Amino acid sequence: MAILSKLLPPLATSFGVQSLFALIFVPQQNDKFYDFGGAVGYLSTAFVSLYYPTIRASISAGQLLPLPPLSSFAPRQLLLTAALGIWTTRLGTFLFQRALKSGGDSRFDEIKRQPRKFTYYWMAQATWTFLVGLPVYLCNVVPPSAHPPLGPRDYAAFGLFAASFIFEVVADYQKSSWRRAKEAKQHDEKFITSGLWGISRHPNYVGEVGIWTGIWALSTAVLQTRHFPRGTVGLAAASPLFTYYILTRLSGVPPLEKAGDKKFGDDPNWWKYKRTVPVFFPWGSKN
Q1: Which stretch of DSSP H or E encloses residue 155?
Q2: What's the angle, vertex CA 242, arms to CA 48 and CA 216, rounded to 5?
Q3: What is the DSSP letter of 68?
């Protein structure tokens, strides 16, 4: 339980960062920085989870102390933190640039005019950054000496992360290229059906679930040691499970499918696409 109490600094950081963004942007009714706030939340929370002993010592000493070298951390801690950092920086930059280009996020057109509700969404993002990053934070708060050496399970897990990351990047790139070609009048397709979008209607989200499944799997070896109470592996599994639930039941697939039906409902090609291409996993259901 002492180990779990060390999650309090990352938890406070996650909610503190989003509260700061809410204080700035809720009064402005500005949603352009929502995804950027999520990226900052992940990076800052991961940083605190890794360097909190030094941060606490600096506060006690009343001066900034040098950060320990990366070589002082366990390889698993470095891999997990790097995986989170790479994913966050790539996706955060992509979403932030898209928000700036489009002038915001249409999901918040009405919400941002309601201060209480808009604040709730910032707090929901704090919960998201904490729960989804939980495997990384858990591994970072234990001493490097508590980590078993990397083994086949860890390499397979990192391989799943890397493959899923590439899958997501390619899906986003294909859709961005498709949009640019459409704007340049190089085609008149109403919706994308090529590339990875021909084997899944939401391949970017499939990659997202794979990314966090790989990160969770990479954390399990240390979470099964005596430094953690029994069941911690299951607790950390909230990361991929929550990601899957959010994307397939709440803010991901459902509103996009509904918007597609509304926009393309009179086009037989849309219904053919829905009948022939799975909604999520390439091997999964089409409904």
Answers
A1: helix 152-183
A2: 60
A3: P
The values of phi and psi at residue 117, to 5°, are -70, -40
Rounded to whole angstroms, how far apart are CA atoms 37 and 273?
35
- Angstrom distance (rounded) from CA 87 to CA 73: 20
- Full 3-state SS string of 236-284: HCHHHHHHHHHHHHHCCHHHHHHHHHHHHCCCHHHHHHHHHCCCCCCCC
Q: What is the DSSP letter of 6?
A: T
The answer to whether the beta carbons of residues 168 and 211 sit under 8 Å apart is yes
Q: What is the DSSP string of 48-67?
A: HHHHHHHHHHHHHHTSPPPP
Residue 210 DSSP label: H
* Rounded average pLDDT over 24-35: 94
Break the chain down into helix, strand, coil percent, rounded to 5: 75, 0, 25
| Whether pTM exceeds 0.85 | yes
Q: What is the pLDDT of residues 172-195, one digit of tens each?
A: 999 999 999 999 999 999 999 999
pLDDT bucket at 1, cuts 50 / 70 / 90: low
Angle between helices 238-245 and 203-223 in degrees, nearest 10: 160
Closest CA to 18 of 136, 137, 124: 124
